[in-house]
Structure formats: C-alpha cells, structure tokens
Amino acid sequence: MTRIAGGLIDRSRTLTFTFDGQSFQGHPGDTLASALLAADVRLMGRSFKYHRPRGVLTSGSEEPNALVEVRTGGRQEPNTRATVQEVFEGLTARSQNRWPSLSFDALGINDRLNSFFAAGFYYKTFMWPAKFWEKLYEPIIRRAAGLGALTREADPDAYDKGFLHADLLVVGAGPAGLMAALTAGRAGLRVILADEDFLLGGRLNAESLAVGEQGSADWARSAAAELAALPTVRLMPRTTVFGVFDHGIYGAVERVSDHLPAPVQGQVRQTLWRIYAPQAIMATGAIERPIAFDNNDRPGVMLAGALRAYANRWAVVPGQRVAVFANNDDGLRTAVDLQAKGVDVVAVIDSREGGALLPGIRHLRGASVVDTSGRLGLTGITVEHRGRRETLAVDALGVSGGWNPNLGLMQQHRARPDWSDEIAAFVPARGPKGLVAVGAAAGVFSTHGALRTGAEAARAAAEALGRQAPYALPKAEDAPYRIAPLWAVKGASRAWVDQQNDVTVKDVKLAHQEAFSDVEHLKRYTTLGMATDQGKTGNLLGAAIMAELTGQSIEATGQTTYRPPFTPVSLGALGGRSKGRDFKPFRLTPSHHWAKSQGAVFVEVGMWLRTQWLPKAGETEWRQSVDREVLATRASVGICDVTTLGKIDVQGTDAAAFLDRVYANNFASLAIGKCRYGLMLREDGMVYDDGTTARLGPNEYVMTTTTANAVLVFRNLEYARQVLWPDLDVQIISTTEAWAQYSVAGPNARKLLQKLVDQDISDAGLPYMGCAEITIGGLRARLFRISFSGELAYEIAVPARYGDGLIRALVAAGEEFGAVVYGTEALGVMRVEKGHVAGNELNGTSTALNMGLGKMVSRKKEAIGVTLSGREALVAEDGLRLVGVKPVNPADAMKAGSHFLKIGAAPTVENDDGWLTSLVYSPHLGHYIALGYLRDGARRMGEKIRVVNLLAGTEIMAEIVSPHFIDPQGERLRG
Amino acid sequence: MLIPHPLLGPRDAQEFVYLGDAALIDRPDGADIPTMHDYLYLRDNPAGEHRELWYHEQGDRSWLVVTRNTVTHEILKVELARDVARAKGRSK
Q: What are the Aminomethyltransferase C-terminal domain coordinates in residue numbering (chain A) (predicted)?
C-alpha cells in the first residue's frame, strides 16, 4: 500500500470494490483512481489506437487515459473517468479496449506496427477496393480501435430535467468560486454554486497551503458550511455546468446518484438543469498540461499537480521513488510537498536555466527528461543535463508544462481567447454577456489572486442589482508564477500529445508536412482533441508544436473552437423522462375509455389516439373488421369518433371577410345554418388543408380542420388576423378539446339520431349541408349534416364531458338498426370509395387543380395562395389530375406506392405518368380501388394503364375511372 | 434564448415558433404573379441585425417582430407584429 498519513478520506469506513474482477478496498472520499493507486494499481487502460498500457494522468475530469466501464447490467456505463468516479460499496469496474487482459493485450501488436498507423493512415490505406470499406475494413478497425462497449440493455433509472433561477451562478468552488459565492451570498443575492467535484474546494483540497488561520482544505470546508447555512445560496456539488447558451442560460448536469450503487427510492440517477442567471462567474480553475517527450505516456507518468493532489487530498503516493519534470514554479511545489511527506524525491528536472535551487532536493536546472522505460509501468527516466545523459530509477514522474486557464465555457460563443506571454497560455476574452472569469480561469494563479478576483466579481454582480457586497479577504499566498515555455523535448521515438487518441509529435509533424497546418485541419487530420476528453490536456501542446513548425506565434496559430458539452453528458440525462410511452404525450378523446373497453385497436394520428378498427368476437384479421364496418355503415348506420378534427371558433363582424381571405373558395355567401367545404391554400398556391366550416350566426362560424393540421392552421389564422389584416374585427379560439364529435352515417342515420335529438331533423328540417344548434334531452349540442362517407350522414357535437355518455347513447339507440362503430380504416375505405381527398392527396405539392377542385379557387377575391396557384406550370392543361383506378382483373391486388405507366412504356422517370396515392379494398365493390394523380388524368377516363411497383416487383393492368366509385350523383347523401 | 415579450416580459424561446423575415408583413395584396413570387421567395439573410417574425404559440398567441442580431443572438427590440403591421399601413 502506498497510503500515507493525512488526506480528506474517511478511514473509519472501508468500501470494497472490484477492478477487472479483483477485489480492492477504498474509503469514502476516494475516487476509483485514488483507491487503485493506493493499491499499487498503476495500469488502468489501453490506448485507443496502439493499445499502449496506460495509467492515470490527472486527478480530475480532464483525464484522457483511465477510462473504465463501471457497474453491470442496465446500469453499465463505458468510458467513465476513474479520476471522477467515487468509490462506493460494491462498485464493479473493468478496463476497456483490451483482449484478453489488461496486462496482456493481443492488439498491443499495433504498437509495434506504429509506423503503419500514423495520422491519415485510414484515408491512405483503405481507399480501394471501395466496397471493402463498409464490409471489411471498417468493422475490423472499429473493433480494434475502441473505447468501452454499450450494454444494449435498457437503463433502469429515471433522469429528470429541472429549471433554476438565480441572481448569480458561480461555476467552480475553488478559492475564487467560494469567495465569490460567500461575498454574494452574504449580501443576500440568490446564488447557485456548482462544482463538478463531490467535495467543494477545488485546488484548496489538493494543496498544503494556508488560508487565513486555517489549512486550505479546512478553510474550504468552513466556507462550504457557511454557504450551506445562507438562506439564498444553493450548493450544487457533483454538478457540471457544461454549456453556456444565449441570454444567461446555462446547461448543467447533476450526478444525483452516480456515487451510489443505485438511486435511492424515488430519486433519479441524474438531473439536467437549465439555469437562468443574468450574471455568472466562471471560476473553473486551470488545467495542467504535459510536456511531450519520448514515451511520456507510461503508467506512472502523471501531471505534477495531480501527483500532488493524490498526496495531499487522497493520501496516496503512486510510487516509492519520485521525480518531477517542470518548466514552471508550480511544478516544484509537488517535489516540496512530497518530500515534506517523507517521500523519496529522486530529482527535480527543471527545464529553466538559472534561478534559486530547492533546498534539500537534487534540483537540476536546464535539464529535461528525454525518455522513459518500463513496459506496464514506469521504472526509469533518462535525463539530459548539461549535455550529459543519466538514467534514474523512478516509478513515478510528475510533469508540469504549465497551466491553461480552463476557459472553455467563456469561449463557447466563438470569441477567441487572448494569449498571455506571462503565463504562456490563452486567457479568456470577451465572453457572453453577464459571464466573467476569475481566479485561475482568468489566468490569476495565486490563492490570494483567486480570492480577490472572486470577491471583486461578486461585488460587481451585487452592484449591478443595486446591492452592496462588502468583503474582507483571508490572508493567503500570493507567490508569482514563473514559467519558461517548453512544449516538446527533441527525441527519436514517439512523444504523446493527445494520449486518449494516440496523437504524437510525429503526427503533428506529418500534418504540417502534408499542409494540414491550420489548427482545425490539424485536429481533423490527426484526431488531436477529438476524443472524449476533447483534448483538455493536449490541445494547446499540439497547437504550440504546430506553431514551432510553421514559425507562427501560438497566438496566431490559435485554438480550435470550444463547444458544449464541457464533459460528456449522458443521453439519459438529455432525454429525461421522454422515453418509451412517455416520449411524447398522448391525447385521448372523451370516448377513448369506452372504445378501449370494446377492444378497439388504436392508431396515432398527430398526438391523438384514434380507433383504427373495432374487432368483434371471431374476427382474427383486420380486414374482416374493416369490411364489416364499411358494409354495415353503407347498409344501415355506422358511428365514428371524429372529435380529433380541429375545431376553431371564428367570431366578429369581419368573420366572413376573414374566411374569404383564408379559404380559396367563397364564404361570404354562406347562409346562416349552412356548412360549406373549404379549401385552404398556402401562399405558394399548394393546397394546405381542407374542412367544413359552418355558419351558426351572423358573426359566428365554426371551422374544422384536419386532425394533423389543427395546430398549424390555427397558427396561420392568427398570422392572417394579426400580421396581414390587423384591423379585421375577428376573434378566434381553438375549441378542439371543448367538443366531443361523432359522425353518424348510413341510410338509417336520421332514424337513429331522431331518437335522441329533441328537434325535427327531417330532410326539410335539416337539409344536406345544414347545421343547427340543437338539444339532446335538454343538453345543448350541435348538429351538422355533412358526409365524408358519401352516405346520409351527420356529425353531432356535445360538450366534451358528455362525449362518453353520447357514444353510449348512440350505440344503444343504434342497436335496433344493427349500428356499428367504425374506425379510421373504414373511414378511409369509404372516403376513397367516394373520391374524397385526404392526407395522402393533400401532400403539400398538390394544387386544387390536381385534385379536380380547380373550380373552387375563386379568382374574384383576394385570398391566400390564389395568385400563385395561377402560375403557368401549375395550371398546365396536361398536369396531374386526381383519378380513380381499378384493376382490370378484379382479383388483382395493386400495391401502394405504385407508379402509372402507359402500355409498352419503359419504366423510366421520363415515362412516369403519375402515381397511386390511396389504395383500399372496397368490400362494396369486391375488389381493390385506388386514387392517384395521373398526368392529363381528366381526359384519360377508360384508358388501360399499368400500375407498376418496381420495389415490390408488381405490375397490374388497371383502368382509369372517375374517383367517385360510389353514388357519383350524390343521391345517398341528399336522401 | 430569452425573448422579452412586450406584454409578458422575458419568455424562453422554447415557447415560440419561428417564422422568418418580417418582410413577410408587406404582403402585396392583389398583386400579379411576379410581384407575389418575389414577396414569397426573395428574402434577405443578413449576418447581423435582422427583423423576424416569432409566434408565442405556448403563450398568449401573439405574433411578434423580434429585431435580433443573427451573429450574437442579441435581441435589440421586440414589438407586437400587429402594431408593426398597422404602422406600415396595413389595416383590413
């Protein structure tokens, strides 16, 4: 064991977990990485491409190497960073991308073959034969180059979405964030303090510094305790603010239960928060970067700050003999802290010349690490110092190439950061309005600087709200941060830049050689920064190496675009509750439960569930039910729920004029107590929607729309009355949900309804296309004599809460006539038999003329779409026309989706004569019938034509007929 | 995005439906085909300040004219489309 004294772990409790089947122990406060390091496990994964043995590089969410699969079954999650996964009792973790085992990985051969696997290798190697790519190359490559695997089991946990509002959002709870939240919280601002870590404090927990009279970690704990007690402050540990969106909206994911074996009853696994905060403080700290030198990726080589964090926070030293390689003062702290803890610090390799030497430590100035050794873990380093090479036996090496302000959030809106020579890093510039950077995230690296800038930003936020926020800073170190940039050490082998995607200095050189020098090209050519860590440790290093190659400055070379999310967000969190049955809400009609009790089969229409057909005992196949429903309706009477049709109440002294503008046909002449079929066009002249509109009074109309277009038509009506003709006196409101409506159709429809309706509904009392406000046993209702089926038919509407009662009353009243209840399939059969257009014909590319309704478009008035419906190509004499189609041999079954071809014409696009739009089996006629759009169709009645479906391989000889298969004179519906 | 609704204050953009260029207000009622064609199909697509029509569908059903910078998403002005249309001389 390499545990030392101290640390922020609870040694009073022991947690047992497994890694690759082997059992280990950790303590509350441990991450999987710290617990494994404490058990002398350095090898945690294999690299993406070369399958190189890898250990942990960092101590935070920027980790590129230590990716593991955690948990089992439906909760299994790949690519979890061991550096952020909290250890819990029973945790199971497995290494990834290795076979058969982590220490012996067969694909380690890729490492020996590395010269074949350089950047651009796939593009160059697998070019031909082209068809080999999909079938052969890609599957092999995908298997070899991989991360973790998905379980393919359903996730058993729930995920929530939530909304939060605050005066000030503070992202990051290090010294700057804590001080900002304290300053604002003490002044009474509504503050949210979010941090991705489970322990607030940031680097304060990783250092051996003092703040005020306390150790830095103790001060962080006191600050967090004070914040927790402030009534307007909300602390959100385990919460990553991953994205900055417009106008002060932030996306965050809270890992509510990721630290538990399973969510506590009633709790979710994660919550996706949308945080509204007009002001926000980015206190996200800094991320240390490595130095590229040969074989810098062995387990045991880690960032100096991480090495120090493991020692100070987790009481773990991942080695017995440690060295540090740094180009800045901060790296030296690691050597000092470790030595103070009694660790054998073999040497500090400092790339800078001159300056003071660390006391009591072998401190080599002007030196560098040029190579390392150790197959599955570091055993030694080769150091070059004053022209001499020396090999040192060490098993841990801390590397510090400097610190990059963690400025991703600030730059997500594409503003480019500024370069600072002083810290040799980019610092945030002009971010989104309301967001300011403080502390290390702003390039202010001392603890005092972090506390001061955090407090100042909070005071400014308070002042913007007209509040005072005085503060007093605790005493803290204000040491200068001195750095002399060193990016890559010259070498003969491979030096890693991006460890997760296996991008080396050689790859960057190759990209330059092949003219992919722009950082965005460099990224895509080498995959630098494209892994799950998004290059948090390697991106700047890659850009700096490219800058050296091109001779440009790093500032001019720039950085690739920062985009959300900052760290990966699970699809479960993004989906929230919207999965399975709850993916979207269902709308149910008032008689849904009655229909369900009758065994109805339902179909989704828009958001509605409609009865598709209603099987009777003994019916095993849908056609049996549908044929029965159709025949019974045409023979006697059928009842259909048409509640889902859109209903819009239109009132006002200009209501008639308004309808005349939005419908292509005339409405001004519609008499009170009458209905009319209306055709609505889009401004481009295509048919948009159709339906019946009834005039109930001088200034009162009720419009119906198709089920699917109800919302869109309403939107367009609002547009017409607010935007186009703002002074028309017309008010509209959707009443779709207010009325339950049923169609009663068939020769006995009137007889059935007369049993219920209080008024006279004889043909004289309510003629065809009439409408009336009636009563049913005193209950107010509406009756429309309209027909979609071609039969004598009515639609009867009652207030929605009486819908269930009405369907039962209708069915009871219909018993003596053998009434059926029919669904959308029978409805569809009957409308095709009658030649009515529906969704298949109203497809957004059809004009009224195409549908045979050209005469309805009135040229005598101004209405939406009328002008452009007259465009030359749209009014061509030989254009598509709606026709009926029936097979020459009644036994032939045409196929949906077929196209029309003249006899003898080759099946080419030029010869395409149109297509079949709606196909049904007509039980009435005893064969299939169809509607379709046929070129010059109106003049081709009686012509024989081929109905060809090349996909299904069918060809049926058919005859072109009128689309009105039944009762073309309309005698039934006027009966 | 947050859209400062002239009647309701700041509302989340998720409540709105976007239509497009507010030039659509200038419908040439009764115009010939070429004029109507140009009205319907020819739009500017500026990088910068843009006047747009938005509909508060999950709200009070107001059509709004939102003046927005398409580069920064900054919203400079929000008006009721009805007021804008009237100011442009549209009536019945």
A: 881-967
